[in-house]
Amino acid sequence: MTQKKSHKAAQTAADLIVRNLEAHGVDHIVGIPGAKIDRLFEALEDSPIRTIVARHEQNAVFMAGGIGRITGRAGVAIATSGPGVSNLATGLATATSEGDPVLTIGGAVGRADLLKLTHQSMDTVSMLRPVTKYSAEIGAPAATSEVIGNAFRAAESPRQGGVFVSVPMDVLNSEITEDYPVMGNRNAVKAGPAPEDVIKEAAAALKKAKKPVVLLGMKASKPENAEAIRAFVKQTNLPVVGTYQAAGAVSKDLVSRFGGRVGLFHNQYGDYLLDEADLVVAIGYNPIEYDPCLWNRKSARPIINIDVVPAQLDNAFNPEIELIGSIALSVQHLTRETGALTSGAALDKILEVYRASQKSAFAKAKSTQQGMLHPLEIIKVMEDFVAQDITICLDMGSFHIWHARFLEVFRARQMLISNGQQTMGVALPWAMSASIVNPAQKVISVSGDGSFMMSSMDLETAVRLKSNLIHIIWVDQHFNMVRIQEEKKYGRDAAVAFGPIDFAAFARSFGAKGINVNSVDSLKAALREGMETQGPVVIAVPVDYADNPALMNPLPELSK
Questions:
Q1: Mapping DSSP to helix (H, G, I), strand (E, B) and coil, where does residue 5 land?
Q2: Band of residue 178 on the pLDDT scale cut at 50, 70, 90
Q3: Which of 115, 308, 381, 450 is most buried (CB neighbours < 10 A)?
């Protein structure tokens, strides 16, 4: 990559946008240029911000979303007008539903052509408004800093999400004749704890409860929140259940209080704990993660909701007490007010059965097909390589359920999962983001053979960036998560099969290292090789999904 020149004085609205991005602390921008936005890319050439050219706009937003999730500050993606911007939609919907701060900037035809039937005219502001927190157009050079500043504030304020700014080509090219202020350097407004009287009310309810359970959601995995939650659990000794996106919030020393992760299907020991609870403390939980009607089947049972914003009320999620403000500070104050509790022991038997069931599942896991691996054989091998500093990025598919239920991680934001829109194709772009943020650390990402091909064009980008990642592909030549649900509903599958790909050869054609494996030993060897390799490594694993129906089977204890 060529050395960038020092920044020149602002001359156009494009330069002013870049000044705002720099002031906000943006280090990387991902995007694809085009005639309506190329002035902005030209301005970035004179900036210390690193520009990364992606191969698809959707992946550019996924990468920006990964940066946003890991750092807590908005990642930035840029696209040109028309289909360039429309390709941002899925990434923005994912970011907004997952709570990942992302700023996207899109080119547009000149203002005089916005309502004409001309090349790439499109009302992108209206189109993207439903999937963003903020969607606006810079209508004049004087509004540049205002719009960009407000976009950043919307992306990074609770709950975080995606935002979009459209810049007509003539505005982008307009000369700046006045010294407009830069607004990108505003720090996010810091919230305090919930009011003390509400915290006392919550503590009193906890002390009164006989079988309280803690339910952790996506915001629990924010590092400062996770630290406060761990202190709370140590003090109260309460059982803890997490959604998929709360992975890593519970530390290793608290494993004995952890009842597993819940999501998608009401059939886990975590669901059993929630069914038995006489009070639930939901921390950082968003109903989009796991439908309340599935886990809360006692409508009269009190719920304490600890979050950054009030709950969106649901027939099955109508909190009796809400601690709204800084999650970390509210939990810290609640910990002091509650003190030690003995009520958590009432559910210890369920926790013991859960841990025994996990051990039993691994012990029994064995593929009956020659040259294929059982899902838990793969995860068991992975456990030996997943150190505390390794980030795991999961795509969407039945494999992500196996990982969510069985792969233990103990660092906040160590495992990135999509369970809002359940978007396919996120794993590889997220892995590149993790490598960008922490280039010295290895990243492991996992896809099915269906989801990998939805973002595989940016494997070239990973090679170009020398991303320090290992990407594991579970191969079965089906959209398997769809398949198992169709078979359960209809007794057969439809439209879920596709042809084979030699993924090792595919990876090598991009300049990455590609490895095909067919046994536990060859997978171990491939992962060792991947850990020693600088740059992306793709490992293809034929998976035996014969036990997949068990993912949906009811838990006997829940059928009583």
A1: coil
A2: confident
A3: 450
